[in-house]
Fold each of these.
Amino acid sequence: MKQFFVFAFLLAATLTGVSQTRFIPANHPDIRYVGRFDFSKPQEVSFDWSGAYIQFSFRSNQCAVKMSDTGHNYYNVFIDDKPSKKFDVKSDTTLVLGNDLGTQIHKIKIYKRTEGSQGKATFKGILLESDGEMVQWKEIPQHRIEFIGNSITCGYGTEGKTKDEHWTPATENNYYSYAPVIARAFDADYHIIAHSGQGVVRNYGDKNKISEINMPKRFDRVYDQQEEPTWNFRTWKPEVVVINLGTNDFSTQPFPDEADFKKGYENLINEVIKQYGEIPVFCLVGPMIDEPCYSYVKQMVDEFRNIYQKKNIYFVGIPTYLMNPEQDLGSDYHPNYSGQRKMAAHVIPVIASNLGWKYKTDELR
């Protein structure tokens, strides 16, 4: 079996060693986009949220993609379901994904590791050999999940070596967040709406009890970093929403008032219901925070279930002591891949029990 590598360097408009190429524009119908993407310029598809991914199948011995970035983002590439090296994009770049691949049908997945604060990415198209051809993507996951969260959901520091190591964009790998781990266990496509430091009503380090822009105010955005354009919720509907917020509200003083926090969280849940209908919503707390956030969220969920009779709203508490400080924490005391898998293993049975979904345990071991 051939080994595959990613070579991330600036090239001319053609593949190295190939005199003629076939260019596949970004709006080709056989390219699959999962996440919040901006198609207003069909041949330059832009995005910035963590965990957005692009998939396509083709028959060609060689393959490259054209991308650009307003900042500096990192990506994982998978070729024929096998992970390859990560690459970064910080300008208008042509990236060779494979040389001498063989002429059988191949599959590519390009996965955004880093969050919106690192810049806006643009996918411009694919370069194949002159006789190469696109093939329809056939493997559509069974389920759809949306995750709303903060740095933990972003995968902040998942590749950090120790808890005392400070975060860098290169150690943020959303693919190792509990959210994608959960989605893969359930064979689900997913959207991730998450931003480090954001809270329900108050962001990390804010001197005020209520922040001007918090995570719920980002919920309707196409881009994490831009108020406009707004997202068309009719384009993609999840079967379930998982929320993990509150850590930043109570990480530093001054804490928000209990009533303001609960009301802000209630408003977010009601907005989810408004956009998606009466679908299940799982409200997670932890593992980087406990009280008073733990009790506030549980009480708020109990009110939904018992007072408003919305039995499809669920509380899941993830205890701080689930993490082994020496083994499960990466940059700045955030869960690393080991810790994120423990989180996923804690949450998955709750979702499965209430929705009747089957799941795989391979990645949880």
Amino acid sequence: MSNDGSNKIFTKSTNIFILAVIATILWGSAYPSVKIGYELFNISPGDIYAKILFAGYRFLIAGMLIILITSILRRKFVYPAKKSILGISVLGLLQTSLQYIFFYIGLSNTTGVKGAILNSTGTFISVILAHVIYKNDKLNLQKTIGCMVGFIGVLIINIGGNTAGSGFSFTGEGFIMLAATTFAFGSIISKAVAKGEDSMIMTGYQLFIGGTVLVVIGFTGGGNLATPSFSAIMLLLYMAVLSAVAFTIWAILLKYNSVGKITIYNFLVPVFGTILSALYLQESIYRLKNIFALICVCLGIYIVNRKREE
């Protein structure tokens, strides 16, 4: 396929919308999938290393799939440039290994609905970090309002109560927030590494390296997954495929379109995450605070990424 043909396919508004929705549905489905995976692999709440091993298998396979997909598209085996290896390795350790250690432990100690909403705060933290680090990416009124609205949603979702899933715990909601913060720092590094490397190659090797580290940590710590059933294996493969497909779609969309035009769809991830968690985990999204928090976070992401009309 020619570059012109690719441009026309991936820059058409309808196609962008369809592909972005597919990617965000896949990412949203990760929230209930992780919690269902704990049950299928008989991972107890306190077995941290088994959770890390579970995450490692997912991202190791996902990285291999992206490398395979990219190699098929390029019609040759792909590998990163020598100058990018260090940056990709750091990215793998930070944005895959460390982020998902926090995420997998945190999600086991909170609900999928809260996890989907809280993890989206990485968008706002990224905006604040960019203001500190980059001279040409400062906070303006629009971004400030978007961040404030988003963090209001975070405060609302953590309002205490006596029902299950209410309140705030450090190893639950706190770890999800740490995962979001790690993602934000990783995004800054990713932006620097991507300047000299193909985004799909970068993502594939980042996930492969990070997944490998997670597997090593899991095994070293004594983590062990129960003899998997067919359902457990299929779920693990689905989670690896969802990561590979979603990241590939996102990388292609970002290649042919402006960043703002694509990242604005990030607000759909917490929407699909909460809806799918409610469907598959029988969690409630109908409490007023959950609905209001979701609206605030999604609206904040939309405001931050909305391109102002010239």
